Amino acid sequence: MTATAAWARTPERGSQLVLRLMARIALGLGWHVGHALLHPITLFYLATSPAAQKRAARRYLTRALGREARWRDLWRLYFCFASTMLDRVFLLTGRTGGYDVQVTGLDTLRDAAVRGQGLVLLGAHMGSFEALRAIGGAGAPVEVRMLMHTDRGGASDALFDSLDPTRAAAVIPLGRPDSMLAASEVLERGGVIGLLADRAARGERMLRVPFLGAEASFPGGPMALAAVLKAPVVLGFGLWLGPRRYVLRFEPFAGAVALPRADREAALRDWTARYAARLGEVCRDHPYNWFNFFDFWDEAPEGGAGSGGEA
Over the stretch 202-229, which tens digit does the pLDDT of each residue have? Predict the structure, then answer.
């Protein structure tokens, strides 16, 4: 079993009751109280996480940091993850007061919106995609829909959908007969179709490409979908910089992803490698923002407990 397959089959930690209680406390007593609670919550999850999960996270951090990761680095990774979860509660309910959000590369989206041209936005399990959805209030009022598998929804997804009823409607489920038609219609309206390109939520075809100094498995599906959609591709990252501080970064990636029939396999691998290379650069710049808690490089011994689920 590959690491990605193991991630997809690992149940989400945390019950819906606990998450709803935490959200109610944060919304009722304010962000500062919620933020203060993150410290014991992070300590609890770090202390109770499976050993394999912490080993995998430490291996990732060692690669991204360029030095041996320490316990403090693990803490920062888990705390960054918890912070973005707290912020999602406030962002999804429209309580954006007190947030400092910088935006770079917005002209790429704004110019496309003026032309009425749709875009494919490639993201990753990094920082906050909810922060990226805030671009509507940052000068680029465009329709943003996510194209993704919906069969891994857990307690956190149920909570966030209840906080923002429009969130579920912003997802176009993959695997349905009309999925690509719905995505194409969004692009024709000048909207944005988002794809998370660093993991596969089910057993789709994976490609081994260089990532942070060694080969790792990335799904080929996102690039194949981008090629089918025939729209310019932009990379998007909502990076957590500190308490209520984010930078939204948009970068042109390709005028279009082309997969010529004669050398489709090589082209698909090349596009995936380009994405992985840029993701690796961002991971080095913001190592605590990529939320990897499983054996991404398949480094665990054969038959060992090499992967843990997401925190």
Answer: 667 899 999 999 999 999 999 999 999 9
